[in-house]
Amino acid sequence: MDDGKYLISTKGIFENYNNEEMRTLLWEMYKGWFLHNATEVDSDRMIDMLLFYDELRDLIAQITKNETISGLNQLQQTSVPDPANTSSLG
After folding, report:
1. d(CA 26, CA 23)
2. What is the tally of structural domains in the chain?
3. Is 1 domain-assigned?
4. Which branch of life, at top level (predicted)?
């Protein structure tokens, strides 16, 4: 697998879907898997998939939260004047 190609496609998911859309789609995928496999999969496998779903949902939330915080930090840094470039009032 080409790492550069993978990183571009991974970044695309966060550009194409907001946090709520990703959570909804992830839930739909899990629900579809569960309904499709409910009669064939043992309870341990169902628990593993539910835990995986929860961890992936939390990871997406952390990543999007960090991107939001990073964006806010960049905005704050650009909106605060640099003391070295401002004249003194006195």
Report:
1. 5
2. 1
3. no
4. Bacteria
- Structural tokens at position 55: 């961890």
For residue 25, CA distances in Å to 18, 21, 34, 40, 69 come to 11, 6, 14, 23, 24
DSSP state of 81: P
Decide if 15 contacts 7 (C-beta within 8 A).
no
Domain containing 68 equals 18-78
Sign of CA dihedral 28, 34, 37, 41: positive
Residue 20's pLDDT is: 87
Q: Please tell me the predicted confidence (pLDDT) of residue 28.
A: 93
Gap between the Cα atoms of 50 and 48, Å rounded? 6
- List, for the chain, all residue ranges whose pLDDT scores fall below the cut of 70: 1-11, 67-90
User: 70 lies in a domain?
Assistant: yes
